[in-house]
Amino acid sequence: MTFPSPQDRIELTREIIPNATVAREVRADEDGAVATFDGCVRNHSHGRSTLYLEYEAYESMALAKMQEIAEHVHNSFAINRVAIVHRLGRLEIGETSVFIAVSAAHRAAAFDACRYAIDNLKKTVPIWKKEFFADGAVWADGEVPPLPAAAAETPAAKPASN
Amino acid sequence: MFVKVLYFGRLKEIAGSSEESVELRDGERIEDLFARCSSSRPELRKFRSSLVAARNREFAAWDTELSGGDEVGFLPPVSGG
């Protein structure tokens, strides 16, 4: 089997994500489960009423990191296909900002891979969210991505390796 | 040599642009580049401790040496999802 599957769908889009289509397309006849995660825009944040959100990305790097997540879930869980689609631009309350779908022969792998994918997307994919309220806008508090071991800070006394 | 610098999120608003070209001397590192970029925009320095740098679309340590033509992104904490 080749990983990632050519049927994987890794995408950034400024259009409404066709959730049902994405979920249907990951399923094949050998699958017994499709797990999905629908991340959607909430109408409140830290006790304030949200009007809408805007997302932006370092697009080329974000796609590369989403692809790495897809490769990791193929290597770590007994799944068939994975779709990771993230929306950019202005999003209204209730709209989907990220949709993940994973197919597998059995449910445990599908659930686990789906959970891994969203948790790691939130930590490592360079996408930013700005929250707009009636009285102003703020960039959402985010997570500081961990450096890969190879890129970790080297001690000051040691010459850099590259 | 020149490198391409990209700013995102709140950094883009502080920098006043999303992209610029910066001239470096041979052997300079990402931290030297950030010092140059923030010398005319002291506001940027306040964010140094929460930033992660990327070199050519891969996370990179601050002491990574740069080469001409590199693309360096200064990334605030990420908040996708």
**C-alpha Rg of chain B (nearest Å):** 12 Å
- What share of the residues of chain B lie within helices? 10-25%
Per CATH, the class of chain B reads: Alpha Beta
The CATH superfamily name of chain A is Molybdopterin biosynthesis MoaE subunit
Low-confidence stretches of chain B: none
CATH fold topology of chain B: Ubiquitin-like (UB roll)
Q: Report the C-alpha radius of gyration of chain A, rounded.
A: 18 Å
Any idea what the shape of chain B is?
A: globular
User: The CATH topology of chain A is what?
Assistant: Aldehyde Oxidoreductase, domain 3
Description:
The complex is a heterodimer of chains A (162) and B (81). Chain A has one domain (16-135): Aldehyde Oxidoreductase, domain 3 (Alpha-Beta Complex). Helix content of chain A is 27%, strand content 36%. Chain A is built from three helices and nine strands, in the order βαβββαβββαββ. In chain A, the strands form two sheets. In chain A, strands 3, 4, 6, 8 and 9 form a five-stranded antiparallel sheet that branches. In chain A, strands 1-5-7-2 form a four-stranded mixed sheet, with helices on both faces. The radius of gyration of chain A is 18 Å and the shape is globular. Mean pLDDT of chain A is 91; it is low at 154-162. Chain B has a five-stranded mixed sheet. The longest helix of chain B is centred in the middle third of the chain and has 10 residues, at 30-39. The mean pLDDT of chain B is 96. The interface between A and B is medium-sized, with 38 and 25 residues.
